[in-house]
Each structure stands twice: as structure tokens, then as C-alpha cells.
Amino acid sequence: DYKWCYYFDSNKLLLEHTIYNKDYYESLPIGTVLKLNDLYAISPLIELLLRDEKAFTAISLFYASLKTHFCCLICELNKKTLKSHPSHEPELWEQASEISDYEAAIVQACRCVEALLGKPPNKQKQKRFSEHKEKWIKQFDIEPDENFLETGTTFIDFYYELFNLRNKAAHSYGTISFELERKQTVDAQCFAYLILRAYVEKHVLTQDRVTKDLRIDYQLIKKTDYRWGTNQTFKDGR
Q1: pLDDT for residue 35
Q2: C-alpha to C-alpha distance for 142 and 154, rounded to whole angstroms
Q3: 222: part of which helix (H) or strand (E)?
Q4: By Cβ atoms counted within 10 A, which residue in 13, 65, 94, 120 is the most buried?
Q5: What are phi and psi of 138, to 5 degrees?
């Protein structure tokens, strides 16, 4: 959403400026300053989103999953037992209202993985199964037989479990799946994140290449001091 200010003057009060969308005044005092070097730091990801529709789709689906059910990936992927945001199962009286969010989050996490890997092949067809595992290594630099977190299964095995979870979550048939646990949702989201991160790291371009392809004015970037910053964009009415 773009909010245009007509001829901004730092010597004038905020309310003295012409801003297109007066309803926006209330939210102007609260915000985040994005410096040029902040944008430059994420420019490789911006370029990937512009170039790679598969990456854009997968990231959008993963974001949708986290909006439906948030979990702290830093805590969940941390091997330490002490977590700032510990995950826990809902109380008995909360369960019925939480399950629908778990189901929706699992479906979106699975769609994220599906956008990058497709549907899992039949394990009984050994040649096809082996080729698919080779695809993992080539496209993601992930060893499919490596253990996936502390789930007691490998990446490739959880890949199949994720689709089973998705099928159950997508079709309720008018019943509430009380056997569905929050941990299953968190595991699905962590799995999707690790696959997505591996894909991005494998396909993102170097900063120098992105600077050239996006025609970024690096001389202007260098003039921005990375130490500059502020906790708010508005103070004392100016």
C-alpha cells in the first residue's frame, strides 16, 4: 500500500503535510525505517522472487501457513532444550477451536513443499524412488536419508508422512480430528521451512550478480551508513 506525501518538509508538523489517505494519519507515528542497505541486503531474495515463480509460490504458501498458525522457527529448530517460545499442546477446552488452524496450516505447508518437490513417487518403484532422492541432493543439497529433527524419521520418510497429514487435514467429512496434535503442525512447518530455505540457498544469485541484474546504484548504497536507524518514524509531531 503506497501512501504518498506531497512535498515533504521536515520543518513542518506532520499534520501540515498533504498525505493522500487521511485515515492513515493514526498509524503514521508507528512504523519501521527500512534503510537502503537493509533493502540491499535482501536484494538477492527480491531478485529470486522476481525470476523464479516456483520460489514465489512456495514462499507465499509458507507465509500463509505461518499466518494461520505461528510457530517460532528459531526455537523449534534449536537443539537446546531451553526455548524462549516453547510449543505446547492446547488445553482440553481450547482444542476444538485450535484444530481447524492446525489443519489449514498443515495444508499450506504441504503445498509449499509440493511446489518445490511435487508429489512423492511410489516407493515400490525403486528406480523412480532412487531418481527422486537424487533430485533432492541436486536441487536442495539435502541428504534425503538424513534424520529430520527429533521426529524419529528421515527427511524422505517425513515427506511421505506430510502428504498423509495433508490428506487428513484437507478432508474433515464433518468431524473434528481430535487426534491431531500441535506438534504435527509444527513439524510440518519446520519441514517446509528447511526445504524452502535449502531451495533458496541453492538458487539465489550472488550479491554482485543481483546488483548488476537489478541495476542497483551501489554508489548510492555506500553512502548509507548501516548504523543509522531509529525506533520510530515520528516524534514530537515532526
Answers
A1: 78
A2: 11
A3: helix 218-222
A4: 65
A5: -70, -45
Query: 113-121 contacts: CB < 8 A, separation 24 or more?
Result: 113/58, 113/159, 113/162, 113/191, 113/192, 113/195, 113/196, 115/54, 115/57, 115/58, 115/61, 116/54, 116/58, 116/140, 116/195, 116/196, 116/199, 117/159, 117/195, 119/163, 120/159, 120/160, 120/163
Q: Give the three-class secondary structure for 147.
A: strand
CB 86 within 8 A of CB 129: no
The answer to whether 178 and 18 have CB atoms below 8 angstroms apart is: no
**What is the three-class DSSP state of 6?**
strand
Cell of 59: 514462499
End-to-end CA distance of the chain: 22
How far is it, in rounded angstroms, from Cα 14 to Cα 42? 30
Closest CA to 68 of 191, 181, 185, 184: 185
pLDDT tens for 92-136 read 888 888 989 999 999 999 999 999 999 889 988 999 999 999 989
**Cell of residue 78, nine digits:** 534449536
* Per-residue pLDDT tens over the stretch 165-184: 998 888 877 777 777 888 99
